[in-house]
């Protein structure tokens, strides 16, 4: 066998042995391509996630702004609640004073009630006195005056005549007095 033949035989042997390795390299290349595709998909997914993160960060920034406004409003509400608490304390204080004054008024009203009971008793006594003593006497006085009135009413005409008679008597008496003084 010649060198060429020997080389060719070695080359064929190597080719047959390398075929396995080539096949493995091709399989590995295919696997690397698949891995590269998977890496590209992962990179695309990472980019999408980064985009979404940017949107989320923007929304978080908006929420932070809104939270600051809410915190400001909550502070204002807390101030208003504190003012209301202060006013409520003032009102409670005033109500306490009113309660004290009301107790004084109730004491006075109690005294007035007692006095009113005394007055009611006195009024009852006055009513009884009027009914049992004054009214019968008034009736008696009325009947007296009525009878006197009736007498005077019936004799009124006589009164005019008596007046004339008296005036005539006065004249006569004065004339007689003059005559007696002249004589005497």
Characterization of the model:
There is one protein chain. The longest helix is centred in the middle third of the chain and has 152 residues. About 0% of the residues are buried. It is rod-shaped, with a radius of gyration of 70 Å. The model has no long low-confidence stretch (mean pLDDT about 85). The chain has 2 helices and no strands. Helix content is about 100%, strand content about 0%. The chain is mostly helical.
Task: Kindly name the structural category.
Answer: mainly alpha
Q: What do the pLDDT scores average to?
A: 87
Helix count, DSSP H or I runs of 4 or more residues: 2
How much of the sequence lies in strands comes to: under 5%
Report the biggest beta sheet as strand number plus sense, adding barrel if it closes: none
Can you tell me the residue ranges where pLDDT is under 50 for at least 5 consecutive residues? none
Question: How are the SSEs ordered, and which strands pair?
Answer:
Blueprint (H helix, E strand, L loop, with lengths): L2 H152 L1 H28 L1
